[in-house]
Each structure stands twice: as structure tokens, then as C-alpha cells.
Amino acid sequence: MADIRKLVRLLNELDEELVCCTRCGMCQAACPLYGETGRETDVARGKLVLVENLSKEILDNPEAVKERLDRCLLCGSCEAACPSGVKILDIFLKARAIITGYLGLSPVKKAVFRGFLSNPERFDRLLRWMARFQGPFSKQIDETLGSSCARFMSPVIGDRHYLPLAKTAWHKQAHRQFKQPEKKGPKIAFYPGCLIDKVLPRVGDAAMRVFDHHQVDVFVADQVPCCGIPALAAGDRQTFEQLVKKNIRIFESAHFDYLITPCATCTATIKKLWPLMTEDFPAALREKVLAISEKTRDINEFLVDVINIQPIEDQSFPEKRVTYHDPCHLKKSLGIFSQPRAVLSALPDWEFVEMREADRCCGMGGSFNLQHYDISRKIGQKKSSRIIESGADAVATGCPACMMQITDLLSHAGRGIAVKHPVELYAEALDKTGEAEAAAHTPASEAKTK
Amino acid sequence: MPNKHLIKEFEKQVGRQNIMAEEADRQAYAYDSAVLDAVVPALVIRPTTTEQLGQTVRLCHQHGLPLTVRGSGTNLSGGTIPSSAESVVIVTNALADIIEINAEDMYGVVQPGVITANFAAAAAEKNLFYPPDPGSQTVSTIGGNVAENAGGLRGLKYGVTKDYVMGIEFFDAAGELVKSGSRTVKCATGFNLTDLMVGSEGLLGVYSQITLKLIPPPKAQQAMMAVFDSVDKASETVSAIIASQIIPCTLEFLDNFTIRTVEDFRQAGLPVDAEALLLIEVDGHPAAVEDDAAQIKELCTRQGATKIQMAQSAAEKDLIWQARRDALPALARLKPTTVLEDATVPRSKIPEMVKRINEIGKKYHITIGTFGHAGDGNLHPTILTDKRNHEEFSRVEQAIDEIFETALSFGGTLSGEHGIGLAKSKYLENETSRGTILYSRRLKKALDPKNILNPGKMIGEG
Q1: CB A165 within 8 A of CB A196
Q2: For residue A40, which residues of chain B lie inside 8 Å, CB to CB?
Q3: Residue A427: inside a domain, yes or no?
């Protein structure tokens, strides 16, 4: 699409949403990026104005608008705080897709999204290859966190402290079919998401231990196509749609009660963005998208609201403290904030403490961190100070992307604070108290199936 | 747009990273929260030090460039919309240091870009209280609050921003630093320039530092909600409370349309049949609070309140104030465009004013929800419309004219707390006099002979 009139026409389809912004500016208090830069084009109000001006041909520079639209964490803090209820994220994602459709995808993104992301097998092979070679180039830097840094100066990695790639993708060894008669709990399809599959397989393992304990019958596919959010965020609607279709093909044949993910961003993408961005799909396919989206649950939500887990009783006094960081895509996008806290409060060894501003964005924002590391880190440093001042020995959060960012931050701070997924801590507690005893508190027959 | 040479000069003074010259950036500083047309400025400058701020003003003066100072751009009367396409917008949000909070002498010193709520929180940490609480306090800047003489919910008992400004340092139109006021309670030194600067809407100087009075926080509060089956009874109750010499810190009013809209939005169990709600809070010494609350309860009953609910816990108190906080967001969601007015009348005229606003809504077939600060007569008739519908919007404009006419006929004022800006400058003479406008223009001309400080606002072009 190189026709500017088409660009204008497509953007004008956003008018009904755009017009709802009253320019009250309350988003300025919510936006973590604006909090650092103070620039109007970094906050939702300014961005909405630019999209509207482009659609009204008051501004004729799509490149400039795209550049500014891309400076956004897509954390949704503005939308959650918007007095007028403007669907800001919908507008941003659609506008990114429309403008990228007009300008075309950058060669690098094209190579990454179309070459690898949209092709899960090739993506897995690339990962295996990269995992083999990362050893000589990195050195472990923090034992508690398991973080590494580059051994040599690297323009891509810079000063990041990162979690090394898994040797093989988690699903390669974890994939399984339903075992039907033996399990009494609900039947679920487990979708780990790319980051847990490829960087944090320990969270996938923990989830399986928890499912086993609660007699949940689990299906893990032998392929994990990405949920599509990186492509969609970059405006690559084609790759996004391909990935949605690949996932649908995997899940349409299985019969399950819920699709469970331990990744806040995947959950939000499947629940909110799949329905939003597939309106043009053929009716039959669209129905499948909606059905799967409807069945999707965050793992904390599932454990608390469906399985109804209870506090694990133990005589010992909790010696360690754990705090919780609200991933934007759980709290602000899906309204899930009490369930992860309920999981943490169920742990006998850990005392739960709140940090201040627990729902302030960590600054990761997916590829935002890659493109704007300095700002991402500045935003993150506020988060790490809050974690440190809470006095916690560990910080839990329900999103692998937040886990990576917080690992980087805490590794730099060198305070020996661990970063965990709530499910990891819950699995550890189950292991410790022993199957027999813990099972007595939550018989699977009490678990609701729907 | 200024030529490259001039931009270079600005760059030299304030640094390249603090200047926005690209069109896409400039378009993001063309508006504020008022429902008015955007004006794209020529240049946007975001000084990070007081020196840079002064340099910017001096350069504008030297080159005769009009300038508009902007904090967070939440102005509801258009005061921060650039005056013209030649304007330089000076953004103050990088000047956001709280320089001092002095618990002993009970004052605070801030740069103009400090966010109101941040300042109040910093004061609270030292067990001090900064009462002005405009609705936009989580984003608004102290500089903006001072320039507009912003109010808030606590105006009745605690006053408004002007009651807390002890001193202002500012750059005059030529960029010369002027110091006014003091850190002392008393100050009889020179002209009272501080009060002249408060509410001057950016026409007389560019603030660089503001000294604010702080007070001890109240030790106890009691919130309550009273339900009425007529607006008259509710506003008679307001008068009765004041007449009995009780001054609540907050005394808010919601009309039936607002009540129903808030209830649709939140489902908190508000009485949707009620014609009016009064949300009342008293604060002070615990014993006095208890007495006052009991007396108000009795007054409400005597005036015919159908139900009175006293907050028994922090959660119940929060529920009461949630209804008030929800008023604007709930109304704003009904239609794309929200025009929030702040015509203010003497308290005793509230029943008549509410009645007239409803009649005006009917006459022009437009939707108006009314809520606001009943205790000080500062109502917020909120018009819900769609600015894309030009025919309807012209009816809205006629209705606004009539609302102001009515407020003035009751001895009221055009603006309780939003300022005059562009939106209300055409009515200013109706409230004051020709002489007032001319006097103000002469004052402006004397202090700003090149007419570069936010020209065209409030008193029009002289």
C-alpha cells in the first residue's frame, strides 16, 4: 500500500475511537515513559493527536508519526487511567498496522518476523544454534538470578544482564497428549509462550508440577508458535495473522476446558488482541479464534478461581519475604491482580509484603527495551528501588518479560533478590510439604471444572 | 517558524535536546483541555534550569516572539493554546524541583513545573497540609495552578490557590528577574506583586519559583452523604449548614442526571431516584468534628433529606467520594465531547441556577449534567456533545452563552476556578466594565510593551 489516500481512509476508520479523547491529559500521571521524558509526543494524548492529525491530513508525515507511536511500552497504563475510557491500545496497535502497511516493514523486522517468528520450526532451530554459541560469549554474573552479561563488548547486548537461552525449547521435551481417565481435574491446553519456552523453561516445569498435583489433565503441543504480539506491535499484521492461524490449527482439534498460559502478555494478546484484530477472518475461522480466546486464562487466575487452591499449612514460621510486581498486561489489561497475590499468600515459607507502586510498569515493553534501552532502564530503576525498599528476598511476577527486565535491573543492583514466577514458588512449596500432605488440603474432586 | 539562525541561538542557550522544532512535535503542543481549535506553535522549548528559562524569555523578547507558558496543558479555558503560529511554547515540566519544605516555618518553595499532588504528598510526609486540590491535581503543575488561581473541592473552608501563595519569583517580559513576597507570614514590602501575578494567566510574567503556605493537617474527618428529593431542599440545606456557622471542608452537589450516569458507570448503589445528593465532609479536632457532623445530620433531616449516610470506615468514606470522583469520567463517556464549565453563583442562588441550567439544556436540546462545589456556589454544568456535529455544537455554544448570562444575572462570576483564557474573554466585559478591560490592557501594555506574554488571552488584543 503506497497510496496516501488509502492510509488516510484506513486511519479515518479509527475516528469513532479517536474522537473520545477529551485532551484532559490525565494520562500524563500514568505513563511511565512520559514520566521520564516529559514530552507530549510520548504520552497517549499527544500520540492520539498525531494519529488524528495524520488521518485529517493536518500532518502529512507518516514516518514522523510512526516514529513517535513506536516510542511506547504498550503497557496500557494510560488506558486503565483514562477518564473517558478511550481504547488507546486498540488505536495504537491498529494505527501501527495501518502506517506500517503504508510505509512497509523495516528490512530487519521483515527478516525476523517473516523469516523466523512466523516459522516456529525454523525459530527453534535458530534458538538451538544460538544457545550452543552463547556459552563462550557470556559469563554468569549473579547466581541467585542466574543472569549473565556479555564477555566481550557487544553492540546488541550492551550492558544488559540477561537470562541465557535454554539449550532446547521447553516444549521439545514437555509436549504431551491428554491422559484422560486418570486425571480428575479440568482438562487444559498449556501454552508456555515464547519466553518461557525458550528462556525460562523452569517456569514451564513448575507449572507442570502444579498441574500434576492438582490432577489437571494437560495437553502441550509439539510446537509453540508465537502469540503474535511482537509482530503486531511492529505493525506487521500479516505475520500476526499467520501466527494466530497456526495456533488455531494446533488447538482446534484438542478438546479442553481452558487454555492456560503463564505469560501475562500472551494471555492479554489471546484474550483481547486476537478478537480485536481478526474481525476480517472468515466467519468459521473467526468463531474458532473467539472460542479459544474465551477459554484462555492466566495461570494464577486458573489456580485461584478454578482450582481454588488453599493456603498450604505448615508449622514453620515464614522466614523469607516475597513481594509482587503487577505485570501491566495482567492488571491493567485483564484486571488480574488479586489472584497472583492469593497464590503467594498460600505459601508457608514466605511472608507476602506489598511494594509501593506495585503496578507501575517495569519499563520492559517487549521490543521497546531493545530499541530504547536507556529509557527502559531508567523506568526500570524506579521499579528496582521499590523492590529493594520493600525488604523482600524475592520478587514474584506473572510475566516472563517482566522477569527478564527485573532480573537485569536487580542483577545490576547486586542485592541478591531472586526473581520468580508465582507458580515457581507455589511448586517449590508443594514439593517441600510433600505430595501426600498437600493433597489432603485440596482434593481434586473439589476443584470446579468450569 | 523561526529561521534556522534563530533556532541555533535557542539551541545555544537551552541545548538542542530541549528544543522541539519538527512539525510532528509542535503539533503536540497546539491544544490544551479546552474544546477550542488547535494553534500549532512555531517552536517548543523545554528549559531544564531557571537560567535557561530566563534566557528563553530574553530571546523571545529580543526577537519579538510571542510566548505561551505551558505546564501540563490541562487548562480548561484555552490559556495554554499558543496565541498564534509565531508563538514559542515554553514547557515548564522539566523545572520540577521541590526546593524546600520547611516544617518549622510551614512553607514550601517549588519550581513552577512541580505536580500539585506531588507537592501535597511531599508536604504530607512532613505532616503538613497543602489544601488546594483541583480535579487535575495528579497532573497539573503548581505554576499552572497559580496562573489560573485553581480551586478544588476544599475551597469552601480552605480557600483556593491564591490563599497559599506567599511569594513568586518571575521573569518579566524582557527576561529580567523580579522577586515578590516573602517566606514570612507578614510582608508589607513594595507593591503586592505576588497577588498581581496570581491568576494572571501568563500575561504578566513567567514564573520561576513559587513559595507556598502550608498548614497543619486536620486531625479527624467525617464524610457523609445526604439524599434529597428536590434540588431546592438540597441547596437550602447548604445555606442552613453555612448559616449555623459550620464550615465543612467539602460540600459537593450531584444532580439527578449525574447520579444516574455515575450509577450506570459504577453500580455502587446510588439512589437513582434522588433529585440531588450532597456529599459532605467536616474536618478538624476530633471533638469538633463529631459535634459538627451530628449537627449537620440533624440539619439535613430537618431540611427534608430522605436518607443520610455517615461513613463508618475509611472504605465507606472512599465509597462516598468515589461517587464524586466518578462524576466527570462517567459523564465524559456518554458522548465524545465534554464541555466542562465553571460558572459560579452566590450560594443562595444555587437552586435557581440548577433550574435554569436544566431549562437551558431543554431549550437547546442538549445534554447537561450538573455537579460541583455547592458550598462555594461553583457548579460544573457539563455539556455532553459531539463537536463533529456542527449544528448541535452551535446550539451548545448558544447554551454556554446563556449559562454565563444567567450566572452574571445572579451576581455570579464567569469562572470559579478555570480562568478566562480564550474561551471566556468575550464575556469578561459583561461581568466587569469597559473600564476594567481598558485598565487591564494598559497594565499589560506597560509591563509587556511588545505584547509577547500570552497575547490575546483573557483581555483580548489591546
Answers
A1: no
A2: 25, 28-29, 73, 91
A3: yes
Question: Tens digits of per-residue pLDDT, B107-154?
Answer: 999 999 999 999 999 999 999 999 999 999 999 999 999 999 999 999
Spatial separation of the C-alpha atoms in residues B213 and B107, rounded to whole Å:
5
* Cβ–Cβ pairs < 8 A, chains A and B: 84
Assess whether A315 and A437 both reside in one domain: yes
CB atoms within 10 A of CB B440: 18
Exposed (0-12), middle (13-18) or buried (19+): which is B196, by Cβ within 10 Å? Answer: middle
Is residue A349 assigned to a domain? yes
Distance from CA of A406 to the nearest CA of B (A): 26
Which domains, ranges and CATH numbers included, belong to chain B? 4-91 (3.30.43.10), 98-213 (3.30.465.10), 218-331 (3.30.70.2190), 335-454 (3.30.70.2740)
Distance CA B93, CA B159 (A): 26
Give the chain A residue nearest B47 (alpha carbons).
A38
Tell me the residues of chain B between 204 and 223 that have a Cβ less than 8 Å away from chain A.
none
ipTM for this prediction: 0.95
Q: Is residue A150, in this structure, part of any structural domain at all?
A: no
The label of the residue with cell 525454523 reads A122
Range of the domain at A15: 4-103
Specify the number of domains making up chain A. Answer: 3
Domain end residue (candidates: A286, A302, A318): A302
Partner B contacted by A29 (CB < 8 A) = yes
Is the Cβ of B31 closer than 8 Å to some Cβ of chain A? Answer: yes
Shared domain for A175 and A291, answered yes or no, is yes
Looking at beta carbons, which pairs linking B328-331 to residues 24 or more positions away fall under 8 Å?
B328/A83, B328/B135, B328/B371, B328/B380, B328/B382, B329/A83, B329/A84, B329/A85, B329/B265, B330/B258, B330/B261, B330/B262, B330/B264, B330/B265, B330/B266, B331/B258, B331/B261, B331/B369, B331/B382, B331/B384
| Residue finishing a domain among A103, A123, A148 | A103
Convert the pLDDT of each residue in A405-444 to its tens digit: 999 999 999 889 999 999 999 999 999 887 546 455 555 4
